[in-house]
Amino acid sequence: MNIKPVRTKTDHRAALKEIGSLMNARANTPEGERLDVLVTLVEAYEHKHFQAAAFSRPRAMPQQASSCTTGPSVSPPSHRRTFFTRPTHSS
What we know:
This protein has a domain at 1-56. It is built from 3 helices and no strands. It has helices spanning 9-22, 30-55, 77-81. The radius of gyration is 17 Å and the shape is elongated. It starts with 8 loop residues before the first helix and ends in a 10-residue tail after the last helix.
């Protein structure tokens, strides 16, 4: 299995494309294991690069808006994870 770390936007896009092509891979096969590793790498990249941006307050926003109690408008990570969850196939 030859897998590179996901460090750049280009790596991220390439990994997402490959994940899309592997979504029907069976568990416990080389393709299924590759899918699991790629998903883990993409999740780590997205957590590092996108989560901080989603919850940071824009500079132009007034200070009073930061006291808003409605919470973030982005789904918690557990909801995003369902996109990558694939059904397991029994042999």
